[in-house]
Amino acid sequence: MRQTAYNLTMALAFAVVASACGGFDNTPFRTGVIRGRLTEADPSVALVSLVGNPDVRSTVAGDGTFVLEGVPAGPVELFIVASANKAVRLPVMVPGGGSARLQDVMPRAAGFLNLHVRAPARQSVEDGRVSVMGTPFQQLQLQDDGTLRVGPLPEGCYALETSAAGFPVKKTEACVKESESKEVKIQLPGGGDDDCTISDCEQGERCSTEGRCAECTSDEHCAPGLTCRDERCQVPAAP
Question: What residue ranges of the chain have pLDDT lower than 50?
């Protein structure tokens, strides 16, 4: 009896040491599966992916069902495009090595970002592209006039990266609500004061020292009670 207890103790100790030293492969427990069904979907455009990790994605079947595999265990957020005008973001807790089964998911009215990309000194925007970071919308081609309608997007805030031949990458953040069609102006960065002229800017804007159109470059350009922060007239930050 004493020998049996001793052998069991040694076996447990060996198991703990082997696990700590990588003796057991726990890879299957680092990911899980999400199963769900959309109450409405157009399989020709519908997809399910992860916010921040768009390479983990799944198509949607004709009946609205989907299976998303290889999802990192823990809290994640789904980025779901259901149709040309419906989308939704959904937080999910994924068990390692297990499966999270969702109740029926109801897509909501999507938003759209109408981008207007301009280059300094009225230069042309050649081979312009925009990526919505952390989503499947990557390297979207701008129109020749620098415009692009991006969506359908679930309600939320998104980081945009805009690039064009001969210009540095421009990073922008834009938020969109349900059913909203939001205009977003993006000024590509230039190399100095000569990149921007007043004629390039909208009424009330001025050229910043970085060669882009800005609402203000100092407090004197703002109405009383406002300060110039990030080239915009804003309420002073709380002390």
Answer: 1-25, 191-194
Question: What's residue 210's pLDDT?
Answer: 60
Supply 233's token pair. Answer: 């007239």
What are the two backbone dihedrals, phi and then psi, of residue 60, each rounded to the nearest 5 degrees?
Answer: -120, 135
Q: Residue 139 contacts by C-beta under 8 Å, 6 or more apart in sequence?
A: 129, 130, 131
**Distance (Å, whole) CA 50 – CA 56:** 6
* Amino acid letter, residue 104: D
Tracing tokens 């805009």 back to the chain, one arrives at: 162
Burial class (CB in 10 A: 0-12, 13-18, 19+), 117: buried
* Of residues 59, 61, 89, the one with CA closest to residue 76: 89
Instruction: Residue 172: count other Cβ atoms within 10 Å of its Cβ.
Output: 17
Stated pTM of the model: 0.70
Residue 96 structure tokens: 């390692």
Strands (E), 86-210: 86-94, 99-101, 108-109, 111-118, 129-132, 140-141, 147-153, 156-164, 167-176, 181-187, 206-207
